[in-house]
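Note to self: user wants both folds in one dump. Writing first protein now.
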Amino acid sequence: MNPRQLKNKTQRRGRRKAGIRKRVIGTPECPRLSVFRSAKHIYAQVIDDLAGKTLVAASTVTAGTETGGNIAAAEAVGKALAEKAKAAGVGAVQFDRNGYRYHGRVKALADSAREAGLQF
């Protein structure tokens, strides 16, 4: 992929992200679960946008998984995040896929968090 294609790809994701963020706002009652994925790791955090605070965070860096760029690691992060969120008193969240397709690692993280008891 040449640099021009990469720039366009990043810009398209930015536009998708802006459209999602117009609709999804984290409140104290129902915070936002935001997902970021890189080639090596996946990160997720539960955010109260009104207070500007991250309530709970989990990632493949902190979860202690061997590799972070696969579906199994994303499932581990989703489960860890849901357990931390429940311990912090968060039961329901709004899912912010951050401009990524709901597919692969993003979907695995979301499904794992749902199975562990998080509502969204």
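First done. Writing the second protein, which came from a different request thread.
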Amino acid sequence: MARSMVIKVTAGMDAPERCNQAFTVAAAAVASGVPVSLWLTGESAWYGLPGRAKEFTLPEATPLSDLLDIVLTGGKVTVCTQCAARRGIGVDDVIEGIRIAGASTFVEEALTDNAQALVY
């Protein structure tokens, strides 16, 4: 059975290298055929909104919007329920294909027999 990855990113522009690394790992895994679930929590929750990933810049890094597009084509992207609520983000606000879900869904995904969970 193939392993899957559950990646939780907590950083945004407050820690751009950490944020970009999480998106890069997720996109690389998707490109390699690995099932990926990318969780946007904390400040990264903003990247679930249209246009926000295009605002992110980091020298020598693949644009965050490109990485997000890769993950959306072959994986799942979720914005944390509480993080979304604290930022006034609703289900109608997020990019098509992104869901809002809570901790119990994260735990369920992270505890599958073949999952590797990473937190950035």
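Dump finished. Worth passing along: The longest strand covers residues 4-9.
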